[in-house]
Amino acid sequence: MNTLLVLLSVTPGGPGTLVARPIHFEILGIAEFGGKPRRWAWSPGFLVPRAQAIVCALDRKFTDLIKRNNVSLPYKESPITCTSTLRKSSYDQYAVSCPIIATESGNVYILDPPTLTILHQSNVCRKEATPFIMTSVGIFDVEYRIIIGCREKLICVLRRGWLEGKVIVQLINNIIDIIVVPGDNFIMVATENQMLTCYTKRGVDTRP
């Protein structure tokens, strides 16, 4: 959860009115992982559109924005960057699968097939990373892994019950495609330098 702290300077306006002006902004990012809060650096991308409007508002519009939005719930729009599926409870060919959605802000959502409600939500990794391709192995109700390729040349893995993924491979070249070999669960990665590299499920390069 991200919190926008705004320090206001309140001065007399017209008769019986006060004028509030923002003089300091700070973003606090609180993460529950490991029970330790984290402080993130300032970035406009951390803010929902309403908070961005407040930060950029002129003095004469700032008070109006505060009054107009003080009762509405905040929300943040993030485009979907890639999708995949994960088997729900069976390996059967015709068994139902859970849709998986990843967003530009690095969130991964596993959805319930009939209702499309969120079954599980997690982050790609601790770094700022944008997923653009992902594949999955396993069963949601038992054990699973979601392998995610990011624009920042990272390969991350998410396992059952994790709230945050782990970076297992840091590449030099951009990722073109990722597949997981059935059975052995080797990760095959194609990169822009026309190389096809095989990694174990722990991210170890299998080349001698």
From TrEMBL:
GO terms for biological process: non-motile cilium assembly; protein localization to cilium. It comes from Aromia moschata. Residues 48-159 form the Bardet-Biedl syndrome 1 N-terminal domain. One of its GO terms (molecular function) is patched binding. PANTHER family: BARDET-BIEDL SYNDROME 1 PROTEIN (PTHR20870). It comes from the Eukaryota. It holds the Pfam family BBS1. GO terms for cellular component: axoneme; BBSome; centrosome. This is Bardet-Biedl syndrome 1 N-terminal domain-containing protein.
